[in-house]
Task: structure prediction
Amino acid sequence: MNFYNLAGAWFAVIIPAIILMYLLKRRRQDRPVASILLWDQVLRDAAANVPWQRLRRNLLLFLQLLAAAALILAIMRPHLAGGATGGSVFMLIDTSASMQATDVAPNRLAAAVAAARRIIGGLGPRDEVTLIELGQRPRVIVSACRNRGQIDAALASLRAGSGSAALEPALDLATALAAGKRDASLVIISDGGVMPPEAGYTVPCPVRFERIGGPANNLAVEVVAARAIGGRLVGLARVRNHSPVEADYALELTVDGRPLDVRRGRLATGQSCELLWELPADARVLSARLQGSDALAIDDAGYAVVGERGPVNVLLASPGNVFIARALALTPGVNVTNLNPDAAGVAPSGYDLYVYDGALPSSLPNAPLLVLNPPAGSFGAGGELTPGEFLPPRDGESLLEFVSLADVAIAKARALTVPRWGHAVLEATATPLIYAGERNGQRVVVIGFDLHQSNLPLRPAFPILMQNIVGWLLPGRAAGARALAPGEPFVVRPAPQAESVTVTTPSGAGISVVPPYPPKPFTATDDPGLYVVRERIGGKESSSFFVVNPPPLESALAGADSLPVTATTAGDGDPLPGQRELWSVLAWLALLILAAEWWVYNRGL
Amino acid sequence: MADEIVFDSEFLQGLERLRLVMRRRATGAHAGERRSQKKGSSVEFADFRNYVAGDDLRQVDWNAYGRLERMFTKLFMEEQDTTVLLYLDTSASMAWGVPSKGLLAKRTIGALAYLTLVGFDRVVIAAGNDRLREFRPPARGRGSAPDLWHYIAGLPFGGRTDLARALRETGRLGLRSGIAVVVSDLLSPSGWEEGLQYLCHRRHEVTVIEILSPDELNPDLAGDLRLIDSETGETRDISVTPGLLAAYAQRLAARQEDIRRFCHSHGITYLSVSSARKAEDVILDVLRGAGVAGRCRP
Result:
């Protein structure tokens, strides 16, 4: 037998209290009578009739103690655990950023772990437990385990992250694990601040939502950004009040580590306001921090990278393709160097991106490449043909984002064979037209037709396509977007000649990324804040930045009262597998004992 | 207790019409109003016998001599007085109760004494608790009544009860057989049977008047109590419940039934009265109703 509410044992102090009251009650009221002769006979008669009469007073005490014990046990909510087979409990424990909130002492995660321990403590020895961390990506931390020590250790190792909690993948995982298990049940321990499944979710077993925390005082920096507007650099920050009450805020803006301004204001519940600053022209990193403290600290600061100062150097080797030169030059911070293809026998070094139109150098540089109309025999190009109709592009193809090909026509294209390292971006019925991929650790995009053989350069789609391509080839540089969500990997694209690349995290730890080549994506982006990427080229060190901001969803501490998760089996709910709560039985028992006590008292047995 | 025993004249007049009934013939030493077993000089004819020399010639039936020429002597019932022993239990328990059992007992004894005196009988007052404590020699005549009442009123209550021993000790008073009235609550640890049996053995016509206070007949108790005996100081812890009170009532009824049965088998008249009653009622109603006191012969 186990107990849901062990703290109820404190009520046991009532037992000594009852005994004490009995002891005190022994001080009987003195009543002189003429003679006790008659009473003696009465008491003797009673004793003779009922052998246990002498215990009668003690019987009342005994009955009262029994009733009190039954009530205390009922308060402690005991339950019988486990059938013979035992059940499987799948426990999803929210480790999103909002679980760091301290509205529940010491914090929500600790409360969640305590709740999990309580539930596990109530399981039978044959019940097995699977713990799944409900974070950005679900993670099984203990699988089908009956070893309570191991489960305990796993629970103790849980840390609240700074990301959001994606419920659907976790439910997918749990459902998959639960398939084929008898007597499975699902427990979701969360504050309700999760990314819910879009259209509800049905799980094939009883599900129980253990909610931690509730509405709490929290101000959050939702957005920090910098934009060049009319030649001036403007910083923007948005503050939202998630508290259930009106709240004052004081937002401090720091530019490159130097405090710039503090703005104060008052926000109603759920209200947000946007604050604008004019930034110094040389600003690089912007951070906005709320002064004071609230239930959740992680969302009190936001960061933004203003954009890379260093220009992107592009080498364009083209026999005078005006379209491509114009399109490349549209991207801010891009310097385009035109080169006669004849002079391109050997690729000059020092450029960030090489664009070859129609011709290729004898040796290709180890750098991002954009190849237009490759000569036959290179990059899988063959003879010319009529490409035919466009095939619908792949879903989520980032290179074709916002690119409308509706009125685009291509007269002739080279027959392309997509190499193993690439994937087709745009295909026509006869041949792939554009493909992209990573060759020797460098990104390559191949456009298999001459722009002059198409009306594409004259369409609005063209500059967008070029922007997408350059952005993809030079991630984080030309595109300038360097804000990540926690846990999102940062793809390191070192300059070809970089000797070493080190990332310094907000906590100050320096992590070496390069060497080795090719660099792995940098994944230690759990902590929100400013990350400094230091690249050493030829003894010179240059630094760039990226920032990690907590997901705004996590700031709403109130969470949801219920989750859109239902059980297909009837009686979605409370009792975990094989458990039977006994409190009602005990409560009835206590009532019966009290009735018996009353009867004994009245009958004077 | 120094309550004067005072009766109103109406009650006393009522008493004058009553007498203690005696079933047996009296065996007194003085001429009285009770028929005795002896033949003597009274107006009530009893028998004839042959004249023997020395008989009182006034008693010869001359009419019979005229007809039969034989001398017969007329025999008349001799009327003698009798001794009435009034025993008052003066143990501490008798002083108990509201109204006091002792007061009713004294008034009853006082009324009985008056009844006796006006009936030309002798009255002996005895009082005792665990032994015979007080004794007043026989008194006769209506004129003794105020003295007796004063004496009765001055009898103190106290001490334990040993009815058997106290009644046994009345034997030392050397009383002839007569009437004995015992007024007590019969709450004697040594038992009430033996003393009464002793009085029967002394050929008394015994009447027992058991006086219990209302709170003994119907205890008004509640809660957890420590009962303290007024005589011994002993204590009993009880938790009063309806069940216990019912058991008490049952026990009391059984006890009274025991006494009644015992008295019936020994020819004892038994009366149980509540101390809430008046002595007048006890005498006029209860004693008469029970046949202890009857109208005197005209």
Remarks:
- Chain B has a mean pLDDT of 82.
- Residues 34-80 of chain B form one domain.
- Chain B has two domains: 9-26+82-295, 34-80.
- The two ends of chain B are 39 Å apart (CA to CA).
